Amino acid sequence: LYGQTRYSRSRELEADYYGMEYMRKAGYDPRAAVNLQETFVRLSESRSQDFFSTLFASHPPSMARVEANRRTAASLPPGGALGEQSFANATSALRKRQPAYNAAKEAGEAMAKKDYATALSLAERAIAMEPREGRFHELRGIALSRMNRTQDAMSAYNRAVSLDPNYFSPLLRRGLLKHQLNSFSEAERDLKASIKLAPTEIAFVKLGAISEQRGNVCPQAFNYYREAFVAGGQRNAELQNKLVALQSNCQPQTSQPR
Question: What whole-number distance in Å separates Cα of residue 81 and Cα of residue 22?
Answer without folding.
Answer: 13
